[in-house]
Amino acid sequence: MKAKTVMVTFWVLLLLLSLVMVSKTSGASPNSDPTVTPWAKTYGGRNGEGARAVAIAENGDIIVAGVTNSFGAGSYDFWILRLDSNGNVKWQKTYGGSDDDMAFAVAVAPNGDIIVAGVTNSFSSGTADVWVLRLDENGNVKWQKTYGGTKDDVANAVAIAGNGDIIVAGVTNSFGTGSYDFWVLRLDENGNVKWQRTYGGRRDNEARTVVVTPNGDIIVAGVTNSFGTGSDDAWILRLDADGNVRWQRTYGGSKEDGANKVTIAPNGDVIMAGYTKSFGAGYWDAWVLRLPSDGNLPGCNFCNDSNAQVSVPSPTVKDTNASVGDTNAQVQDSDGIVQTANLKVHTYYGPATLTINSSPSGANVYINGTYKGVTPLTLNLTPGTYEVKLTKQDYQNYTTTVTLNPIESKTLNLSLTPTFGYLTVTSSPSGATVIIDGKEVGSTPLEKHRLSTGRHQIAIRKNGYREENFTLTIEAGKEVKKNVELTPIQTTTATTNSSATGVSSTLSSPTTTSQTTSSSTAKTTSSAGSTTTSSPGKTPATTKGKGGICGPAAIIGLATTPLLLRRRKTL
């Protein structure tokens, strides 16, 4: 086997342990029997065999593709086995020539045909060519073709597009810009080339896996030494249906890292499985990444953009005439030792944790305009930059921006600014009514009464005291204290003389004091022009003047005096 082919084969063999995922076509068939008992079997002859790829047929049969050194026409041949769901061989065949031929990929077409791809030295134009075979469901060859140039060209992966086209991905040393480049070919169902592209840089690059997305895009991934930060990095490209690059990125550290398989999650995320020497607990670790559909991991310190040179090669396409042989592999149940692994799992990129506290609590939280809950709140978010907004009644809206790094835990302790303040009013004496902006709100002492910010009119009222009025300004979150000294209303006195009766009456406000002259101790006689005052045991004195009353009038006047005195007494 030629040197470059040996190198490619070595890498494929070395990385079999980290092939933890298969292509989309290898998912469980809806027609498979869920009651099948798990099993473990070996298949082989007296020399060396290896399974490199597996796919599930529509009826649940298992299609295995690999290489055999025990059977076939040459040193190594393609080896295809069709097993039922219990692992029993339905058929097994070899395909090859006099030299080395190795199958690295297999897929099942919508009509049940089996597409096998790999490398051939038996039928190559150069040292090694891409070799693709289309078999019917019984393993009979429908067509077989090679694609290549004067040097090494190998197919590592195959996928079926929605229209039945065959997407082949691998590595070429015959074409491209560097030593080895990604090579992607789109073939029709008959193996004719629709288009082909190389993607690479000045050093080695190898495509190891390919998958077609629901919208028809092509995800191809592998390893690059032309781009990235280490000696090797995982390299993923997303192409449109015509092979144009939508995006391309590398993922890796300072040492050797690579991608072996990709698949598409139901939500469109790209799941990559590979290996790493840059990260992990051991010398080599399995490495799994879940990427968004655009491949961009915000805040990722091991992710880089790449700038592959794209070229359109002109390979030689040839029909081949491989020898097809039935094989008689020995099938045995295997009794492998099953042990529980003590895994060391290291996370180098993952969601960030954001905890949001507010004073006061109970504020509504919005992340990039989407409601998430109320404070206190803890969220798991994809690394990136976010707008955080808090709202709460009677408080000003709070908006800030936060950047979250991978697997970072960050806490925001936010103080909300109220849209109100407080008023405390005391008075001397207390018990006065407090009126704010025309509305009665309580009586003194009034403690920390909440008010909106701005100017307010205050009135303090109490019976017997003058009303106090003033204006004050309330600031957000602050307390205004006001003590009011109330002023009593002044007392006034009025005196009224009754000339008609000769009785003096004194009125006072707010209270009235009455003085009464007793008829038993003094009598007052009023007549026109004279007044006679008599005391017991004395002769009355007479004051003469004009207009005095005498005779019957005097008698009537004297007779009414007691009535006037009684009336005066009741005032």
Task: Write structural notes for this entry.
There is one protein chain. The chain is built from two helices and 43 strands. It is mostly beta strands and 571 residues long. The strands form twelve sheets. A five-stranded antiparallel beta sheet has the order 2-3-4-5-24, with no helix packed on it. Strands 6-7-8-9-23 form a five-stranded antiparallel beta sheet, with no helix packed on it.
Secondary structure layout plus pairing:
Elements: H1 3-14, E1 41-44, E2 49-56, E3 62-68, E4 77-83, E5 89-96, E6 101-108, E7 114-120, E8 129-135, E9 141-148, E10 153-160, E11 166-172, E12 181-187, E13 193-200, E14 205-212, E15 218-224, E16 233-239, E17 245-251, E18 257-264, E19 270-276, E20 285-291, E21 303-305, E22 309-311, E23 316-319, E24 323-326, E25 330-333, E26 352-359, E27 364-367, E28 370-374, E29 377-381, E30 384-391, E31 398-404, E32 409-415, E33 420-428, E34 433-436, E35 439-443, E36 446-452, E37 454-461, E38 468-474, E39 479-485, E40 492-498, E41 503-509, E42 523-527, E43 530-534, H2 552-570
Parallel strand pairs: 26-32, 33-39
Antiparallel strand pairs: 1-25, 2-3, 3-4, 4-5, 5-24, 6-7, 7-8, 8-9, 9-23, 10-11, 11-12, 12-13, 13-22, 14-15, 15-16, 16-17, 17-21, 18-19, 19-20, 26-29, 27-28, 27-30, 30-31, 33-36, 34-35, 34-37, 37-38, 40-41, 42-43
